[in-house]
Amino acid sequence: MSDFLQTMATRSAARAAAAPTTFTSADFDKPVVPLALGAFDVIAEIKERSPAEGDLGGQNMDRRSRAERYAAAGAAAISVLTEPSRFDGELSHLEEVALAVPDTAVMRKEFLVEPVQVLEARKAGASGVLLIIAMLSDAKLREMLDCAFEHGLFVLLEAFDERDLERASALLENAADADRAAGGQLLIGVNTRNLRTLEVDPDRLQTLAPLLPHARCVAESGLLDAHDAARVAGLGYTLALVGSALMRSDDPGALVQAMRQAGAAA
After folding, report:
1. Which of 133, 163, 241, 253 is the most exposed place for a label (fewest CB within 10 A)?
2. With the CA atoms of 171, 175, 181 and 182 taken in that order, what torsion angle do they form, in degrees rounded to the nearest 10?
């Protein structure tokens, strides 16, 4: 695990240890919105800042309005950064977005290390969570997947290298997980950002494309425009997770639409 991931894991574990561990059925009353996936889809991200790119949201960012623009443009889901120490995120941001777009799936993006954080996400209104394969042992990954699926959430499994994709493929040898992957409840992502240097390696998507499991696969980080969407669609990815480009765009809804259309055409 890289230095950055290790730091994030340590901080996440401390937050998990301090989280409430008692939940009631009323805590999970918010609806879970299933993903509706087409030929090519965009998971549009809301984040306050990036360790690599600095401030992205501005002091007066209107998360509700941004989420509504994403949803109106046809985003399959909205990813919300909830990590506080390096991304200025909060779980309340996710809750705010989920209330703003009740018919669109909202995903908690964080460095999750314990099932209680999946339950926190569900309570806040998430319909999905991101799990980073490299941060979790096989046993812990299984525990967190089971927790998410028990509560009807979709999971985006994030991979960085060949070993991560091998572990993802091994999961799909389980018939239940294979069915979830076929139905779009279990997505496999490849992140082009090196979490040691925080630099983006756009060639990683092509390098790892031959190893992609039989699932809907997500190209993550470094995608800027419709051309990039068409390029990754040609490599076999059927979704793109787009953050910084949308946060910096003057018309993020138009960018979501353009990327969806270019990816589908490719």
Report:
1. 163
2. 150
Q: How far apart are CA 184 and CA 178, in angstroms?
A: 10
The CA distance from 116 to 148, in Å, is: 10
Helix (H) or strand (E) holding 191: strand 186-191
- CA 245 – CA 165 distance, rounded (Å): 26
Give the residue from 117, 134, 106 showing the smallest Cα distance to 193. Answer: 134
Residue from 46, 20, 52, 26 nearest 192 by CA: 52
Over residues 196-235, the pLDDT tens digits come to 677 888 899 999 999 999 999 999 988 999 999 999 999 9
> Which two tokens mark 15?
């937050």
pLDDT digits (tens, 9 = 90+) for 119-175: 999 999 999 999 999 999 999 999 999 999 999 999 999 999 999 999 999 999 999
Burial label for 162, CB within 10 Å (0-12, 13-18, 19+), is exposed
Beta-carbon count within 10 A of 190 CB: 27
Residue 58 has pLDDT above 70, yes or no: no
Rounded Cα–Cα distance for residues 126 and 242 (Å): 18
* Both tokens assigned to 46: 């809301």
3-state secondary structure of 138: helix
Query: Nearest to residue 73, comparing CAs of 104, 109, 95?
Result: 104
In angstroms, the CA 55 to CA 32 distance is 31
C-alpha radius of gyration, the chain, whole number: 17
Backbone angles phi, psi at 76, to 5 degrees: -70, -30
